[in-house]
Structure formats: C-alpha cells, structure tokens
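Illustration: Exodeoxyribonuclease III.
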Amino acid sequence: MKIATYNINGMNARLPVLLRWLAETKPDVVCLQELKAPQEKFPEKELFNAGYHAIWHGQKSWNGVAILAKGKEIRQVQNELPGDENDDQSRYIEAVVDEKRIGCLYLPNGNPAPGPKFDYKLQWFERLKAHAAYLLAEEMPVILAGDFNVIPTEMDAYKPERWLKDALFLPETRAAFKELVDQGWTDALRKLHPDETIYTFWDYFRDAYRRNAGLRIDHFLLSPLLAERLTAAGVDSQVRGWEKTSDHAPVWIELSDD
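Result:
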C-alpha cells in the first residue's frame, strides 16, 4: 500500500500538477494540506474521474486539509483536532481507510516568533501530542502525515544556521516534535534513510530548488503496528520542478500487506 502526503499550496491552482502526479505515481491514499479553498470549491468531480474518493475540510483563502483514496472507502472520523472548540482553522482531518487510522495535519507555521502565532503553534502541538497519545493507547494502526512545519534536526535544513530564529527550528518547536515522536512513533523517512540529505520543501526565492537549498518539514509518523510493515519511503522531488507547482514535493511511504 502506497500512502503519500503533499502540501499542495492551493488546490485549484495546482490541480493540473496534482492530477498529473496521481496519474504517474498512483498512490493508494493521499493526504493534502493547504487547499486554500472553501468547502464548496473542492474539485471532487475531477478527483473522482481520476479514480479517487475524497473527504476534505476547506477554508477560504487559507489552510484546508483532505484525504484521497484510490478506489477505497473513506470513513471520516473527525475534521478537527480535539482540545479547543474555538479553533476555527481547518488544519486536521482523520479517517479510516483499509482499517488504518490516518490523521492528515497542517501544523501552524508559527512565525513571527515570539508572538501570538508562535504561541498558537505550541498550543496546537500540545493538542496534537494529547490526541496522538490517545491513538497509541488504543493500539490502532495509525499514520500521522502532513506538513508539520518542523525542521527536526540540523541535517533537515540546508544551512541550518539561517533558521536559528525561525519558528520551524526554534528549540521549543524541535522539543515538541521530539516529545511527540518519543511517545512511540516512527519517523518513516529517517527510519529508512537515517543519514541521507532529504528535503520536502524548497522556497520559490533564490533559485532554491535548483540549488537543493531545502528543508524537511513534511513527515510521516507511524504507530508500532505499522512501523514494522514499512518497506519504502521517499520524496517525489521532481514534482517541485514542474511548471506552476507547489513549493513542497509529495512524500510517500509503502507498507507491506501483513
């Protein structure tokens, strides 16, 4: 089973890129972030014609998350992260596909830091850790995938010294991510590629993609029941070089059937 996550950075603006990538790589399940489209503007018909069922939680101009499944039923569990009933930003959606619980998330950026946006990022992280602990306690086969807006270590950034004061790399952010992983999750890309330079995001400025001046901020966390079934993981970095593409590239994993 091939599962992918992709910060699309504008669902309708990037739809031709998404459809091309789906046709070429044929993932079974896809988590999407930054739809930047209200609920009624999601291209459900175009995705269905490409073979994918979808659930989504849109928001006008900002945020937005979705889960796609190729020829499979998707049973939505929730479309918000528990812990704050006043949070109106669409950053989390959770579903069951093929008896696997999949949480698709778009964690807040947090810049400028310090400030209210960074406070919101850390508060959101606390809610995520609480929900993740609940999922582990239930002993479910779980995947948490998406744009975490976290650079976990220095090896996950081109010239990490340039990011020392950025919310993605501040000690509090990295500590929160480590605390999450230490609950018992497996960072899928690092599990299979512990020493490789791997990036998932390249800024539009300063010719970052051509220079491979990137960041690894899109992650797959696997519960123990799925970590033992991990067989492959990678980044479709070539997609970042396509015309009118997102500043992220799709990230994927493959799981064995048993």
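Reading the tokens back as a structure: The chain has a mean pLDDT of 97.
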